[in-house]
Specification:
By secondary structure, the chain is an alpha/beta fold. The chain is built from 8 helices and 8 strands, in the order ααβββαβαβαββαβαα. Strands 1-2-4-3-5-6-7-8 form an 8-stranded mixed sheet. A hairpin with an 8-residue loop joins β1 and β2. 36% of the residues are buried.
């Protein structure tokens, strides 16, 4: 609806219901018009961030959700980062709807700004396989304008293990990684010393012992270079609370601050997660309005 058309429409409606005052009425109406138009623009912007399900698209890999931040309408010369989310054991299976329960899809629906391509595969069961994850990354690179210097991975629990194993397998192709409440199963973890990596684990975690992350940290230190490692050992934090990290804008700011082109590939240490920050983030999250971001099939 054009602004002037809406202006006259609103003027008639306000007159009908005696809402207009005897002074400054035109200014008031134009203010209403501006607010209305801004709401429409904002709604349109949100609508472009839609996740679509892909099943059986990449042979020998996983089914996955994918989000194009501009819905295919961006400058063909523009390139966007790619973020890969690896879920935990509770979301394993063949029903892709399960992957919506927590992580970037749910975070986006709660108005967390993740301005990049987002890929959320589903593991049918067992350990995450780095080579299978990379196959869908290759699919994204072939079909979308992915900035190959800014590919990121993060995950929790089983997805934390997957993040470590994936980063260890492809340290020269990932700009940064964040592993939450996980560990590592790869035989060779030496590659982790090459990538900015943030490992986060609660000391009160009864589902996955913090000792699993300790072992990964020890393996990185054994390489003689742990300069790109950050390790947050959160005192008194259990297995579930760190999931709030997916809903914090600082998480994405930290990931996106890294690039393969960075000299020395130094790690960003400007921000830290603490138990207090996690507690406050939950209260802020509950204030946000839920937005539909998944295409109906």
């Amino acid at each position: 609806m054009h602004a002037e058309i809406f202006f006259h429409f609103l003027q008639r409606r306000l007159l009908k219901h005696n809402i207009m005052t005897t002074f400054g009425n035109k200014k008031i109406i134009r203010t209403f018009s501006f607010v209305f138009i801004m709401i429409c623009v904002s709604t349109q912007c949100l609508a472009t961030k839609r996740f679509k399900a892909f099943r059986g698209t990449v042979q020998g890999s996983y089914n996955f959700w994918f989000c194009d931040p501009e819905n295919g309408e961006h400058d063909p010369n523009a390139h966007f980062p790619l973020l890969i989310f690896l879920h935990g054991k509770s979301l394993c299976g063949t029903n892709l709807e399960r992957v919506r329960r927590y992580g970037p899809i749910d975070a986006t629906s709660r108005d967390i700004d993740i301005d990049c391509y987002v890929m959320a595969p589903q593991n049918p069961g067992g350990s995450w396989k780095p080579e299978k994850i990379w196959k869908i990354v290759e699919w994204a690179k072939e079909n979308y304008s992915v900035d190959t210097t800014r590919i990121y991975v993060y995950g929790m629990s089983l997805g934390g293990y997957g993040t470590i194993d994936f980063a260890a397998a492809y340290p020269d192709k990932l700009a940064a990684a964040m592993a939450i409440c996980g560990g590592g199963t790869a035989k060779d973890l030496s590659g982790l010393s090459k990538i900015p990596l943030w490992i986060i684990h609660g000391t009160a975690d009864r589902a996955v012992s913090v000792k699993q992350s300790d072992k990964v940290v020890e393996a990185i230190k054994a390489t003689g270079d742990d300069s790109r490692l950050r390790y947050s050992r959160l005192k008194g934090i259990d297995h579930g609370k760190p999931a709030r990290i997916f809903y914090m804008q600082q998480t994405y700011e930290w990931l996106f601050s890294h690039c393969l082109k960075d000299e020395g590939r130094t790690v960003n240490r400007d921000f830290d997660f603490t138990p207090e920050i996690l507690n406050n983030s939950y209260r802020e999250l509950m204030k946000k309005e839920y937005i539909q971001v998944v295409d109906n099939e």
